[in-house]
Amino acid sequence: MLKLSENAAAALEDLRRMEGIPEGHGARITGGEQPSGDIVVRLEFVETPPAEDQVADKAGTEVYVAPEVAGPLSDVVMEVEDSDEGPSFVFHPQNV
Q: What's the pTM?
């Protein structure tokens, strides 16, 4: 199952607050696999996830993972890295 780093959880909470999204909303990851094999994901905040979503939690920050990306993201850690455009969420293998 997807894991969240502490930094990613904190960045998601910061983003939620900056966007004016109420507490209790979680981040939801949707997307799919491209012909190249790469996974394209979309992040949005939702009040209640669909029943079929997996739930990753770190320090009270919940991320709901849609079924279409749950498999490819099952053994990764969601991290945040600084870029020229600001913070970016990235995924790294859990074993690294």
A: 0.88
